[in-house]
């Protein structure tokens, strides 16, 4: 029994395919990985976060972007679509297509059962190599729980956790805050 050898793509081949595709895929080390659709709670949380950040950032030199903007992790070769991105200052884009950000300030990922370990582990390892990244936030969708990682001197990262709906998360890198009650607004906990 013989198996077909894997076909590896160059980053340019991936981008050519991705820019024509109906569905989003991540790319790493020559392989494309299709992204699964989001659950209703995931979509609500992302919308809540984008709405809250947009209101707070509209008069500041920072922009908030949803999961349609790709981030290229230059040092590791990962191409990915974070759930929420904040970029402070002038966005640095990889090319004239204007669809690939190089300098996020803050990345937020809403965790699902299938991505939780990856988002908190290997993906965060990739993100930590982005020199502009000052904060990384993960948001659990099945219970109030937010983890905020902040870059410290000597590339150390400090974890702070939030578990109560009356708490707020200060996002110092972008000069704004997220109230857990707003992040989780319209989530039906009875169905969780």
| Lateral arrangement of strands in the main beta sheet | 3-6-8-9-10-11
SS class: alpha+beta
Q: Which superfamily, in CATH terms, is the homologous superfamily?
A: tt1808, chain A
Q: How is the CATH topology named?
A: tt1808, chain A
In this structure, how is the largest beta sheet organized? 6 strands, mixed
Percent of residues in helical segments? 10-25%
Individual helix count: 5
Number of domains: 1
Low-confidence stretches: none
In short:
This protein has helices spanning 11-18, 40-57, 116-120, 122-127, 180-183; strands at 25-28, 31-34, 62-66, 70-73, 78-80, 84-88, 100-101, 106-111, 135-140, 146-152, 156-162, 168-171, 176-179. It is α+β, with helices and mostly antiparallel strands and 192 residues long. The strands form 4 sheets. Strands 3-6-8-9-10-11 form a 6-stranded mixed sheet. It has a 3-stranded mixed sheet with strand order 5-4-7, with no helix packed on it.
């Amino acid at each position: 029994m013989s198996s077909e050898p894997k076909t590896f793509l160059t980053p340019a081949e991936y981008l050519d395919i991705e820019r024509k595709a109906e569905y989003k895929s991540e790319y790493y080390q020559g392989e494309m990985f299709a992204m699964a659709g989001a659950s209703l709670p995931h979509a609500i949380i992302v919308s809540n976060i984008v709405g809250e950040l947009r209101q707070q950032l509209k008069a500041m030199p920072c922009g908030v972007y949803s999961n349609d903007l790709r981030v290229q992790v230059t040092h590791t070769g990962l191409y990915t679509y974070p759930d929420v991105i904040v970029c402070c200052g002038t966005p640095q884009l990889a090319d004239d297509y204007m669809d690939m950000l190089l300098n996020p300030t803050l990345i937020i990922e809403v965790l699902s059962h299938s991505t939780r370990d990856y988002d908190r582990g290997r993906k965060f390892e990739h993100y930590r190599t982005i020199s502009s990244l000052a904060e990384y936030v993960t948001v659990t969708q099945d219970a109030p729980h937010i983890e905020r990682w902040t870059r410290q001197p000597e590339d150390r990262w400090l974890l702070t956790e939030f578990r109560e709906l009356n708490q707020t998360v200060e996002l110092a890198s972008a000069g704004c805050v997220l109230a857990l009650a707003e992040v989780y607004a319209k989530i039906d906990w009875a169905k969780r």
